[in-house]
TrEMBL record:
Organism: Micromonospora yangpuensis
Keywords, comma-separated and alphabetical: FAD, Flavoprotein, Oxidoreductase
UniProt xrefs under InterPro entries: FAD-dep_OxRdtase_2_FAD-bd (IPR003953), FAD-oxidoreductase_2 (IPR050315), FAD/NAD-bd_sf (IPR036188), Succ_DH/fumarate_Rdtase_cat_sf (IPR027477)
Cofactors (names): FAD
Domain FAD-dependent oxidoreductase 2 FAD-binding: 5-426
Protein name: Fumarate reductase flavoprotein subunit
Keyword Protease appears in the UniProt entry: no
Range of residues in the leader sequence: none
Phylogenetic placement of the source organism: Bacteria, Bacillati, Actinomycetota, Actinomycetes, Micromonosporales
């Protein structure tokens, strides 16, 4: 194809949202994806499909009171005011329209998650597909894309350069095949949806040293393509130290143990059988806490009630199927199954149950419990992991990439390629920040690029 209206690089959630929005507006779109395994290996496919949005019809049906302003306040509180203000306002404002569009125009079956609350969200606002599987969400977006004649998926093809004219505006995209051959496509709009840089150990060590020792659990294509382009074109970047970690990746199975285990009343203990913090502060910041324990490992401890509640998650079903859950009828058996000291484990269980029952204050300040744990008990061995980066190219409210604070005509970024709404470090991450930045910025980019890239 010698020319098109919009070129989108990356076929994860961000790229698909951008491509769908532009193609539905009548534009000819080339969606270039570097890896043939992207259907299984994108960060969207590996997520739990949680999309936070405030003021939605699903919330209205559930009689949940919420608003974009309240959502924005939660982001500011969790990030201590460090979230990119322009992107935070843009995403909280468009989020309700986004989930409407996903359901009505893209055929994504969404529902509101109301069985538990994620840390930092002051209302039920996470929308998900029924099995809470990112793979199901990604597949629905791919199905929607397949139904559009003017949306052309090109795999494998990696965006390696963007050509600009004398005014600095986009004029062409350069794609490269695995055999080294290149094709230059004339276009007035390029959307960078190549994710972040979490799969590049050197970049992680440079920008995220605290999590460099953690397991990486994300798409292998996240190698900093957008950052490398930023260096060549002099583009603005921000919050490169921001990332989403996770404190409960099952090992050695390398499957996500949903943090719903914690929010339903479970807790984590180290090799000494002791808890080491308030688990409900958030799963992202808990990654480094787990890595700091002896051996960089911990045990997630819960019970049959929590097990039943977590069966709604496809990831949890995978954990169970993999045989990662150790079951025990009493604490002596649980100690034997995990190798934890029975006396310390018993003392930890008694303290946690007292706090969960309201009989005493938790020494770590945890106040969110769903009741004490009762036998039979379950435990899964976990480690801290890096899921994806949250910093990248600075963008405006239309997802246009900035250079010297000014939008580059025709150049957009979404998802991990762009700055997110998590501020700095791991502590500012709210559940769904990554998917909202992917789908929301992708939607904004595709919609704006459809106007900019019209021929």
């Amino acid at each position: 194809m010698s020319d098109c209206d919009v070129v989108v690089a990356g076929a994860g959630g961000a790229g698909l949202a951008a491509a769908l929005a532009a193609a539905q507006a009548g534009r000819t779109v080339v969606l270039a994806e570097a890896r043939e395994t992207f259907r299984q290996g994108s960060n969207t496919a590996m997520s739990t499909s949680m999309i936070p949005a405030a003021g939605t019809r699903w919330q209205a049906e559930a009689q949940v009171t919420d608003s974009p302003a309240r959502f924005l306040d939660d982001i500011r509180a969790k990030t201590h005011g460090q979230a990119d203000p322009v992107v935070a306002v843009a995403l909280t404002t468009v989020a309700a329209e986004l989930v409407d569009w996903l359901a009505d125009a893209c055929g994504v079956p969404l529902e509101l998650v109301t069985d538990f609350s994620y840390p930092g969200h002051s209302a039920y606002r996470c929308h998900s597909v029924p099995d809470r599987s990112g793979a199901s969400l990604h597949r629905a977006l791919l199905d929607a894309a397949a139904n559009l004649d003017d949306l052309h998926l090109v795999v494998p093809a990696r965006l390696v350069d963007v050509r600009t004219d004398e005014r600095g505006a986009v004029r062409a995209a350069v794609l490269q095949r695995p055999d080294g051959s290149r094709e230059e496509i004339d276009t007035a709009a390029v959307v960078l949806a190549t994710n972040g840089f979490a799969a590049d150990a050197d970049l992680v060590g440079r920008h995220l040293p605290e999590i460099a020792g953690g397991v990486y659990h994300g798409g292998e294509a996240s190698r900093g393509d957008a950052l490398h382009l930023a260096e060549r074109l002099g583009l603005d970047t921000g919050c490169l130290d921001a990332y989403q970690g996770h404190g409960s990746l099952a090992v050695p199975e390398s499957i996500l143990l949903t943090w719903a285990v914690v929010m339903h009343g479970g807790w984590l203990a180290d090799a000494a059988g002791r808890r080491f913090g308030d688990e409900t502060v958030g799963y992202s910041e808990y990654a480094v806490k787990v890595l700091a324990r002896p051996g960089g490992r911990a045990w997630a401890v819960y019970d049959q009630r929590i097990h039943q509640a977590c069966l709604a998650f496809k990831d949890y079903l995978d954990v169970v199927e993999a045989g990662a859950v150790r079951w025990a009828d009493d604490l002596a058996q649980l100690a034997a199954a995990t190798g934890l000291p029975v006396d310390a484990l018993t003392a930890t269980m008694n303290e946690a149950n007292a706090a969960a029952s309201g009989a005493g204050a938790d020494r770590f300040g945890r106040t969110t419990w769903a009741g004490p744990l009762r036998p039979p008990f379950a435990a899964v061995r976990v480690t801290g992991a890096l899921f994806h980066t949250q910093g990248g190219l600075l963008v405006d409210r239309h997802a246009r990439v900035l250079r010297g604070g000014t939008p580059v005509p025709g150049l957009y970024a979404a998802g991990g390629a762009a700055v997110g709404i998590s501020g700095h470090g791991a502590g500012g991450y709210l559940a769904g920040n990554g998917l909202l930045a992917a789908l929301g910025l992708g939607f904004l980019a595709g919609r704006h690029a459809a106007d900019h890239g019209s021929r």
